[in-house]
Amino acid sequence: MFETDADDGARHRIVIVGGGVAGLDLAVSLGRHPALSVTVIDLATAHVWKPMLHSIAAGTRASADVALPYAAQAQRHGFTYIAGRARAVDRATRRVHVDSFALHGRELLPERDIGYDTLVLAIGSVAAPFGVDGVEDHARHIDTLEEAQAFQADLLPRLVEAAHAGRRLAVAIVGGGATGVQLAAELVQMADIADSYGLDGSRSTIDVTLVDRGSRLLPAFPETISTAVRERLERLGVRVRTDIDVTAATPGGLHVAGADVAADLTVWAAGVQAAPLAVDLPRDRSDRILVDCACRAVEDPHIYAIGDCASLTSPGNDRPLPPTAQVAYQQAVHLASALPRHVAGRSIAPFRFREFGALVRLGTYDGYAELGKFGFLSGVVRGRLARFGHALLYRRHQTRLHGLRPMLRLWMSDILVGDLRPAAVISET
Predict the structure, then answer these.
(1) Which CATH class is domain 135-270?
(2) Residues with Cβ < 8 Å from 25, sequence gap 6 or more?
(3) How far apart are CA 284 and CA 359, in angstroms?
(4) CATH number of 12-126+273-343
């Protein structure tokens, strides 16, 4: 964890900035390659599967149950973990500048410069404020584990206070994509859990409004799923407002065209842009790094970008691949085989994305899946089967990091003791 720039002799230095779905998967795959020295740089000390962040934010899942320390993964899989925020990349000297690292206000590591032979940017994405006034000052984000935990720490005491006082706790969510939709459902589930544990009135206390500028929720899904999800959320008590332009976020909620939205807490989950990193490379309108069909930066053969921060337009398409975990996972698998070939001076096959459909899970209430190209399977699935499919995605991620047998033990542990673990809404208030 505290190594900076070790002497790796003749081994090719691969530095991966970002330990998310794509970055950690790639590091695990390449960590013990005899010709490579692999380093992961991340400000966080633990990895969490990003599709779980809304559950952690709502308090339906405790972060301690799913967080995976990078140091443990590094020791097991043979790569180096460096704690700190990557601030800038100097392409001329091939070095990454890493900020000092502090815990609980105490600086543990100074600023460092990490050299690389090949750099992989897997920095992920954050919500895009679109220039709306007040977003940075008055709206919460849940793009990282730290942000999800901070939101949860603010939300749960407010819920207890409001329930005991007999008043409403209004939460406004901006963004009708998967994050906003799933967070809305998880907030309702959190209130149901609190009710079941004796915090009477929690369900009637929570007041969730979901706002989106588009004409429908989940625009990447078929319209049948968008309609069904909206109807299900409204039956759960979520107020859904589409075709709404937010002009400002304020301490009291949102300014919108027409009637304003009052809120005690506001979450901004709209849009996608690459996470901040100072590197002089061409980008698209969403600030995502332009890459070629090999996932390589268009102006630097020593830099690759994968996942949400990369903008790759496949041949025959006029739009880049979407910033989804599915794309990130497939790009990590591709680079796991391509980078050793690159180091050996061999040709690299182009990345080809395969669409396997999309899933959205509304807590334990419902689930919806659009099946991709599975041969004889197609169409839309909902209910338990869709929720199970969502669970399998997480188990696949665990398998990539731990192996099949450890994943099965973890799954069995979750089944056997899951009911004994109180949700964060109970254990952390």
Answers:
(1) alpha beta
(2) 329, 332, 333, 336, 397, 400, 401
(3) 27
(4) 3.50.50.60
Say if residues 208 and 186 touch (Cβ distance below 8 Å): no
Question: Residue 371: enclosing H or E segment and its boundaries?
Answer: strand 366-374
Quote the CA–CA distance of 256 and 279 in Å, as a whole number.
35
Print burial letters for 289-314: b (CB count within 10 Å at least 16), e (below 16). Answer: bbbeebbbbeebeebbbbbbbbbbee
Tokens 């996470």 -> residue: 275
Reported as a pLDDT band with limits 50, 70 and 90, residue 195 is: confident
Are the C-beta atoms of residues 208 and 238 closer than 8 Å to each other?
A: yes
* Same fold for the pair 12-126+273-343 and 135-270: yes
pTM summary value: 0.89
Q: DSSP letters of 110-147?
A: --EEEE-SEEEE---EE---TT-BTHHHH-B--SSHHH
CA atoms of 254 and 183, how far apart (whole Å): 18
pLDDT band of 375, cuts 50, 70, 90: very low
Distance (Å) of CA 353 to CA 22, 53, 130, 137, 313:
14, 25, 29, 38, 10
Domain regions of the chain by residue span = 12-126+273-343, 135-270, 357-420
pLDDT tens digits for range 37-87: 999 999 999 999 888 999 999 998 888 888 899 999 999 999 999 999 999
Determine how β-strand 106-109 pairs with β-strand 101-103: antiparallel
